[in-house]
Design goal:
alpha+beta, 30% helix, Ribosomal_uS10_dom, ribosomal protein, Ribosomal_uS10m, ribonucleoprotein
Length: 165
């Protein structure tokens, strides 16, 4: 133990501190920081005809509550919105043996029900759509899946010209 303490005395640890600072100074003086001027870029905002949000879950009450939240959020941003759901849930049934190795005639059935709800927003700009979708995604409850589909409006290309008659 004494050997370890003796080997770590300040006299045995000699680090050239001044050399480190000198190299940093020379590097900083060789490459000065250049300040770039930001020019405002004229980028047009995207326009969306429809943004449709599909919600999936196993609990219909949670889906109804969240759909009401999503439509209310859209109305606060002055966006036309409506919501609807599929009448029947989609059932998936799995039949499994009760025992792992024998007794083939003893089986158990498991069932999952998936409920769907849709919320549709009309005539949005790109920034409004991004803000709204981010707000909805952050408040998504547990057990609910969200899928957003956007239909973007675009200009016709220049090679499409009206017929001259």
């Amino acid at each position: 133990m004494n050997c370890l303490i003796q080997s770590l005395k300040p006299s045995s640890l000699r680090i050239p501190v001044m050399n480190v600072f000198r190299t940093l100074e020379t590097v900083a003086s060789v490459n000065p920081v250049e300040q770039k001027t930001m020019e405002p870029s004229e980028e047009l905002d995207k326009l969306y005809k429809i943004v449709e949000v599909e919600l999936r879950g196993n609990e219909p009450a949670v889906l109804r509550s969240f759909a009401k939240f999503a439509t209310t959020a859209g109305q606060h941003l002055d966006v036309q919105c409506k919501s609807w759901n599929l009448k029947k849930p989609i059932h998936e049934r799995y039949t499994v043996l009760k025992a792992a190795h024998i007794y083939k005639k003893h089986r158990v059935q498991y069932e999952t029900r998936t409920y769907y709800m849709f919320v549709q927003y009309k005539h949005l700009t790109g920034s409004t759509a991004d803000t709204l979708l981010e707000y909805i995604e952050r408040n998504l409850p547990e057990g609910v899946a969200l899928k957003a589909t956007k239909v973007e409006l675009q200009r016709l290309p220049d090679y499409f010209k009206p017929l001259s008659s």
